From TrEMBL:
Identification of the protein by name: Transferrin receptor protein 1
Organism superkingdom: Eukaryota
Gene Ontology biological process terms from the UniProt entry: intracellular iron ion homeostasis; receptor internalization; transferrin transport
Segments traversing the membrane: 29-48, 131-151
Gene for this chain: LOC107660323
Post-translational events: Stearoylated.
Length: 807
């Protein structure tokens, strides 16, 4: 029996190996043999017993030992075979112990049964029948074993789930192992090889068009093209429809009159401007806060006057908001030849909503058939705003060319009339998505997005980003299909509409799925305006992504000098301190949803690219890039691709939470310095802020230490750590700010009275004894900001028993 059971066990082990390597023929045969040998082993017990009894009936000498029976002589050996593969156990006893055990086991009677004489003729008479019966039994067992093996193999074929788990997972439970994927060096080489300039060039030609404004038939056709590409790559796709309100020029053109004469009408306009007619003009440089402060120092009152400002340095909406805060009556914005190299009659397009998304559904998704609350964004301006051309600005400033004239402030005789006749309409827009699902944590994903619409050709604004979006989707899906790459987490590719009105499509999507995205989405990368020059590199990102972006720049060759890395070529760019402003399409992801985001661009250090004009064409972009557009596009694609692959390839997310320590400390240093003015009550102490900062430092350091001492091959442990890392950015959103009043709730990177920047400004006002200073309001800001920092530290610390709230 031992021999047959051993054969059965060996067949079972080999059959498992054959099943692991998907050799069904060998597996079936070994299953049959396993069942046969097992039954044969069982039959051998009875057969040996029968033969032994017959042998004892005629044998004159008692055997020294027997298998699985009782002892007949001086010594006894008991051999017990472990079917799981353990060594056999041998036990020896003396004959003095045997007699008692024999009686106890009740075998004495059997011994006496075999004390009769032996008759050889009787054994010979039974031998032929015994052999015949033995042969028939073997055939019967073989048929039974065949049937059992066949049925078990069929059952296995129906229920088998292919996996890369160890072969003997049926014997003992094993820890979940990581999904096989390529090494990072191989992965990086594959991306650079498969992301090609010919494919990018093909996409640029296919997706470029003279006009594809949001909600137009051209915009929808482009969306269908992108959807078709995603489906061709084998991606899961879907669309997201929104019904949003936007401004368009009315039947009566917007007009600007200077000293009673029509300066001219313009095709350009600013969406969401107030619809009014106002008078009197005043020049205010770029319309920054410091520019208006300079006017106040010159004792020039802005109240009730129209303000003429240059385009550039900050968004149109911020210029208008700064003017409105000083009670200006209107704002005119023009492209100055110092900054722009465009034609004198080129019109500017844009919007002046100090926010993102549909301003008539603030913090609320504009889905169809949804009951919208009767509200509008607090970021809508109360004064009219209009763009004018270089030629029109020249007529206002002087009779000569603007580039040759002296800029002047204007006087009471410089009467200007601004007529804005925009109309508010509702449009249906489409966001298009394609997803590459992860092989382990499919419910954790990052998003790569690009704006699809534009006022005119919008080649640099949207076509380049859309082309790179599709090429990256093609490249990564190809790596999965043909090269064995298996991303651990999912990648979503998104094409947004209505970006020209202030990231409307992206923001409405965020508002619609905010609760889900804040738990599952761990990063966003923007491809908008990624190329507008060649001699300067600008990037802005969440501090959590600084380190990853910098290390990626060291692995990508410069498009200008192939002997240098991107990091070496643009080492002078202090991109870490470049703030993410309202004009960045990644801004709502970062400050509204609390999702770590990256936005970067190759740009010109001398001239501003004509975004938002009809001169945003492929020919103009070639001139701004010194005919290196394709090289720059491939480099930008490599940066985005490598950052993406790093985030979905590694066991742990490459988000450095320790980077926020220095950001928080810098704000607190300002607060401590300003608090020494002696104007704060004694009950307000900066120790609260210091304690909150200390909690965050300790939580970040503890998590870093935990990572260092963890088994990073344990996928469940990595998932727990990643969940803690993902909580950081979202925990910096103030839970005390109203979405209808302050959409951008991030206390470090957002805007509004809940931010640490507002806290510093308020301290400055208190120190300076300004009328705007309010001690009670400051105490409220101070307490809420302090507890937001402490809450972030708690989230980073992990479980509730690991938290430290000793403030």
């Amino acid at each position: 029996m031992f021999f047959f059971c051993l054969l059965s066990y060996r067949c079972w082990c080999v059959s498992l190996l054959s099943r692991h390597f998907e050799n069904k023929a060998i597996f079936s045969l070994l299953e049959y043999l396993r069942s046969f040998f097992l039954l044969l082993g069982l039959l051998s017990v009875f057969t040996v017993k029968r033969i032994q009894d017959s042998f004892l009936s005629w044998c004159p000498v008692t055997p020294f030992f027997q298998f699985n029976g009782e002892p007949r002589a001086y010594t006894r050996f008991n051999l017990t075979q472990n079917m799981e593969g353990d060594n056999s156990h041998v036990e020896m006893k003396l004959s003095s112990d045997m007699d008692d055990e024999v009686e106890a086991n009740g075998v004495g009677e059997n011994i006496n049964q075999h004390n009769h004489p032996y008759y050889p003729s009787k054994l010979n008479q039974r031998s032929s029948k015994t052999v015949c019966g033995f042969v028939i039994g073997i055939l019967f067992l073989f048929i039974i074993g065949y049937l059992i093996g066949y049925l078990s193999n069929r059952s296995t074929d129906k229920t088998e789930i292919k996996s890369n788990c160890p072969v003997f997972n049926e014997i003992a439970p094993v820890r979940a192992e990581a999904v096989y994927s390529l090494d990072w060096s191989d992965l990086r080489a594959l991306l650079k090889k498969k992301l090609t300039t010919p494919n990018i060039n093909t996409n640029l030609k296919e997706f470029s068009s003279a006009s594809h404004q949001a909600g137009s038939t051209e915009d929808e056709a482009l969306a269908n093209k992108i959807m078709g590409k995603f489906k061709t790559f084998g991606m899961s796709t879907w669309t997201d429809e929104h019904y949003v309100k936007v401004h368009e020029p009315g039947s009566s053109n917007n007009r600007v009159l200077f000293r009673g004469n029509i300066v001219g009408t313009t095709e350009g306009y600013l969406a969401y401007s107030a619809v009014k007619t106002v008078q009197v003009t005043l020049y205010a440089h770029y319309g920054r806060t410091e520019d208006f402060r300079r006017l106040q120092e010159l004792n020039i009152d802005v109240n009730g006057k129209a303000v003429l400002v240059r385009a550039g340095l900050l968004s149109f909406s911020e210029k208008v908001a700064n003017a409105a805060s000083l009670n200006a009556s209107a704002v005119l914005i023009y492209p100055d030849p110092v900054n722009y190299n465009i034609k004198d009659d080129t019109a500017l397009f844009g919007h002046v909503h100090l926010g993102t998304g549909d301003p008539f559904t603030p913090g609320f998704p504009s889905f169809n058939h949804t009951q919208f609350p009767p509200a509008q964004s607090s970021g809508l301006p109360s004064i009219p705003a209009q763009t004018i051309t270089i030629k029109q600005a020249t007529e206002i400033m002087s009779d000569g060319m603007l580039r040759d004239t002296m800029y002047r402030l204007g006087d009471d005789g410089d009467i200007i009339t601004v007529e804005v006749n925009n109309v508010l309409i509702q449009k249906k827009i489409h966001n298009v998505f394609g997803v590459i699902k992860g092989y382990m944590d499919a419910d954790r994903y990052m998003v790569i997005g690009a704006q699809r619409d534009a006022w005119g050709p919008g080649f640099a604004r949207s076509t380049v980003g859309t082309s790179l979006l599709v090429e990256l989707a093609r490249t990564i899906t190809d790596m999965i299909k043909n090269d064995g790459f298996k991303p651990k987490r999912s990648i979503v590719f998104a094409s947004w509409s209505a970006g020209e009105f202030g990231s409307v499509g992206a923001t409405e999507w965020l508002e619609g799925y905010l609760t889900s995205l804040s738990l599952k989405m761990f990063s966003y990368i923007s491809l908008d305006e990624v190329i507008s020059g060649f001699d300067s590199f600008k990037a802005t990102a969440s501090p959590l992504l600084y380190e990853l972006l910098e290390s990626t720049m060291k692995q990508v060759s410069s498009p200008v000098d192939a002997t240098k890395s991107l990091h070496e070529q643009f080492a002078g760019s202090n991109w870490e301190k470049s703030p993410m402003g309202l004009s960045h399409s990644a801004y709502p992801f970062q400050t509204f949803s609390g999702i770590p985001s990256i936005s970067f661009r190759f740009t010109s250090s001398t001239k501003s690219y004509p975004f938002g004009t009809i001169e945003d064409t492929d020919q103009n972009l070639e001139r701004y890039t010194s005919y290196n557009t394709l090289k720059l596009a491939k480099t930008a694609g490599e940066v985005v691709g490598l950052v993406t692959l790093r985030l979905v390839h590694d066991h742990l997310l490459k988000l450095n939470m320790a980077k926020y320590t220095s950001v928080i400390r810098n704000y607190f240093t300002f607060c401590i310095f300003l608090s020494k003015s002696g104007r704060l009550p004694s009950t307000v102490t900066m120790q609260w802020l210091l304690s909150a900062q200390g909690s965050y430092d300790r939580a970040a350091s503890t998590l870093v230490s935990a990572i260092r001492n963890s088994d990073l091959e344990d996928m469940e442990q990595c998932r727990v750590i990643n969940n803690r890392i993902m909580r950081v950015e979202g925990s910096l959103l103030s839970p005390y700010a109203s979405l209808r009043e302050s959409l951008f709730r991030h206390i470090l990177l957002g805007s509004g009275p809940h931010t640490l920047a507002a806290l510093v400004d308020h301290l400055e006002a208190i120190k300076g004894g300004l009328e705007s200073a309010d001690i009670d309001q400051f105490k409220n800001q101070f307490a809420l900001a302090t507890w937001t920092i402490q809450g972030c530290a708690n989230a980073l610390a992990g479980e509730v028993w690991d938290m430290d709230n000793e403030i």
